[in-house]
Amino acid sequence: MAAGDHNLHSVGGRELMVAFKAFSLRTLVLTFAALCVAVTPAASAPVRVGIAALVVGDVRLSNASINKPKKIARRTRLAWGDTLQTKGNSKLQILLLDRSTLTIGSKAQLTIDRFVYDPGNSRTSTSTVTKGAFRFMSGRRTGNSTATVKSPVGTIGIRGTALDGIVGKEAVKIAKKEPFLDGVKSDKKTATLIVLRGPGANTRGGLTLGLADVSAAGKTVVLDQPTLTAYIPRPGAPPIGPFRLSTGGLTKLQEELSPRVTNANNGGLLEKIVPGVIAAGVGLLILTNSDDDNDTPANPTNDTPTNCDNPNNPTGVC
Predict the structure, then answer these.
(1) DSSP H or E run through 113
(2) Quick one: pLDDT band at residue 12, thresholds 50, 70, 90?
């Protein structure tokens, strides 16, 4: 073989080896990338927090993976990041792993932001309600339990209790009929009304005392007795209260939480409402278990609450 041919052969061999190494490296990278793609879904699997225990009417779910809200049925599993929406004459009750329940009424929207549960030790949950009526009822007792519900204008910290709330124009309608809120300027999209349902300070029978902290604009109002209420009228405004919600206000809020949904086939009430009625009975037992048979005074605290938005406020001090 001539020297020139030998050199040409050597150069060609080196080029072949370089090309082979480059091909091998590229194959390795692509293989690794494929493995990463295959592993990603498992690594980012949804964190399950509970189920849809009651579904009445049209209830839809969306999240990071489901862009177009889809209808759900009873027993649908729910996870962090899920957003639930109800249409008119619809209702959803969520049963969390610790037996806490979150209920939303018609034309409502709720997002499950976070839920951490260590049975027997602690639980933490955070949800956001952007519109409509909702109810939260605490579940199993644990040593360190906190629940938070956010609205567009404030935050509600919940400790071992049951409470109802409503966000948006229906909250404004209720507020307009409350004498304590006379003259308050409200935002129809974000106004938030919160009422403690129980158990409160007069509870007996071994039930854990509960309370709710309603916070906005650097101020916190504490609700520690059934029917005590706080109202956040608009973005940037502090909560007003505590005050006792009227019977008419309580009735209106209950109507928003429990719409009467008729069966399209026979015009009767949907059978699915029955479990909700049973749950409501249990809730009623908790809410009415008080050891004081006397009428509760109109002013539940030593210090008279002040409505800073009331133009008739003689003191002007808040």
Answers:
(1) strand 109-118
(2) low
SS3 of residue 258 by DSSP:
coil
Rounded Cα distance, 262 and 40, in Å? 44
Which residue shows structure tokens 């002013």? Answer: 299
pTM: 0.70
Cis peptide before 242 (omega within 30 of 0): yes
Contact (Cβ atoms closer than 8 angstroms) between residue 129 and residue 105: no
- Contacts of residue 241, defined as CB under 8 A and 6 or more positions apart, other chains included, come to 180, 214, 221, 223, 228, 229, 230, 231, 305
User: Region 25-47: what's the mean pLDDT?
Assistant: 50
DSSP letters of 203-237?
A: B-SSPPP-EEEEEETTEEEEE-STTEEEEE-STTP
Phi, psi dihedrals of residue 249, rounded to the nearest 5°: -65, -40
Share of the chain above pLDDT 90, in %: 53
CA distances from 180 to 29, 84, 176, 262, 304 (A): 69, 33, 9, 36, 12
Whether the CB-CB separation of 85 and 60 falls below 8 Å is answered with yes
Residue 78: beta bridge partners?
Answer: 50
d(CA 302, CA 191): 27
> Interhelix angle for 247-257 vs 169-176, to 10°?
160
What is the identity of the amino acid at 10? S
Torsion angle, alpha carbons of 245, 248, 254, 259, to 10: -150
Coil, strand or helix at 254: helix
Q: How far apart are CA 89 and CA 110, in angstroms?
A: 16
Assess contact for 209 and 160: CB atoms under 8 A: yes
| CATH number belonging to domain 48-257 | 2.60.120.1440
Q: What percent of the chain has pLDDT over 70?
A: 62
